Amino acid sequence: MRVFNFSAGPAALPETVLRRAADEMLDWRGSGMSVMEMSHRGEEFTSILHKAEADFRQLLKIPANYQVIFLQGGAMAMNALIPMNLMGRHRAADYVNTGVWSTKSIDEAKKYGQVNVVASSADRGFTYVPTQATWQTNSDAAYLHLCSNETIGGVEYHWVPEIGDVPLVADMSSNILSCEIEVSKFAVIYGGAQKNIGPAGLTFVIVREDLLDRALPITPSVFHWKEQAANDSMVNTPPTYSIYIAGLVFEWLLDNGGLPAMEKINVQKAALLYDYLDSTTFYTSPVSKDDRSRMNIPFHLHDERLNERFLSEASEQGLLQLKGHRSVGGMRASIYNAMPVEGVRALVDFLRAFEKIHG
Ligand SMILES: *Cc1c(COP(=O)(O)O)cnc(C)c1O
User: Fold this and answer.
1) d(CA 46, CA 247)
2) 235 close to 228: Cβ distance less than 8 angstroms
3) Do 214 and 83 meet the contact criterion of CB atoms below 8 Å apart?
4) Closest ligand 1 atom, residue 172 Cα
5) From ligand 1's centre to the CA of 192, what distance in Å?
6) How far apart are CA 338 and CA 336, in angstroms?
7) 159 is annotated as an active-site residue
8) Which CATH code fits 16-255?
9) For ligand 1, is residue 148 a contact (CB within 6 Å)?
């Protein structure tokens, strides 16, 4: 039996995708082998890679002057690779701090150059996005980095800053493909796959071509964007099976109306949950209304002594992985693209029933 899995990542995948992968496991389209067993430079896998990239481009309407690169190392490796690949000219960059993930990006970048934290929401426990009017940005920064969706804190940008000529770099690990975005407003978009794209082990980078010559000389070849772009992400062996599954997810998205359709459903799903949380004092949502994430929804029980009980009763109902991150406590429901509306409805029904008994 399939449960409703609210994990923040690795997260639920569409059942259609898993079934297709199962069907193709032993013999991928008459090749007589599994995708895992194929040479990454062979005709079959090359076609899988190219189709995945083309579909990713189509979903996000990625302009032709951007390269798409598939890497390993996760979004956390990118915390080092962003400064390595972009600080070749100016060894200073601007960072906006909105929570756990941007803090990690900041701490890692400090190893490679000067980091200026130009705005932070630490003053209110990372529960909002500081308005752009308060940012102390530097016009000569190598780039400005932000995290578009703080997976742990549940804080999301619903706007894109205008920062002139400074390249805008965004960690979109947990909200990529959840809504339409204008790629041309960003210089670099990156993330790990295991939230809203596919299996862990795959990292995507969307980078504007004119930024490919700014790497520090110490940048490892397998993480050097220019070398990877020139080699079709195959300087070394890419995470082939993860790319294949990501490709199936892209096809699933295209078959279901693409990002406009996803955005509509995601807005509806988030509203269902937030509206209920706001309608009662039994549960509270810590995040400022304008900056609430549609993907990761943290909440607290009014009486935290009920937490264990809440989690065990929820799992009896097939509602799993609702425990909040250890750094913030409470609960968190992650409702990425693969979470159907019925899953959110089931969760709201459970919240209501639990409150009725214990409220
Ligand atoms: C999960 C996550 C990361 C870390 O990803 P890894 O693949 O584990 O390195 C970084 N940033 C954000 C926003 C995340 O959600």
Assistant:
1) 12
2) yes
3) no
4) 13
5) 6
6) 6
7) no
8) 3.40.640.10
9) no
- CA–CA dist 9, 194 (Å, integer): 6
Average pLDDT, the chain: 97
Spans of all domains in the chain: 16-255, 257-358
Ligand 1 contact, 196 CB (< 6 A): no
Catalytic residue, from 55, 195, 226, 323: name it: 195
Three-state SS at 30: coil
Q: Which of 5, 7, 19 is nearest to 251 (CA)?
A: 19
Asked if 195 and 151 touch (Cβ cutoff 8 Å), the reply is yes
Which entry of 28, 55, 101, 269 is annotated as an active-site residue? 101
Residue bearing the CA closest to ligand 1, atom 10: 75
Is the CB of residue 336 less than 8 Å from the CB of residue 20?
no
Tokens coding 337: 């693209």
* Mutation probe of ligand 1 site: the residue of 70, 71, 101 with most atoms within 8 A of C-beta: 101
Residue 269 predicted with pLDDT over 90: yes
What's the rounded mean pLDDT across residues 78-86?
98
Rounded distance between C-alpha atoms, residue 220 and residue 84, angstroms:
9
Atom nearest to 151 CA in ligand 1: 15
Tokens of 191: 């993330």
CATH superfamily of 257-358: Aspartate Aminotransferase, domain 1 (3.90.1150.10)
Active site residue 101: yes
Tokens of 253: 């998205």
Number of neighbours of residue 268 by Cβ within 10 angstroms: 12
Contacts of 322 (CB under 8 A, 6+ apart): 6, 310, 311, 314, 331, 332, 333, 347
Q: Is 290 a catalytic residue?
A: no
Per-residue pLDDT band for 89 (boundaries 50, 70, 90) equals confident
Question: Which is the closest atom of ligand 1 to the Cα of 174?
Answer: 15
Q: Is the pLDDT of residue 1 over 90?
A: no
8 burial (CB, 10 Å; 0-12 / 13-18 / 19+) is buried
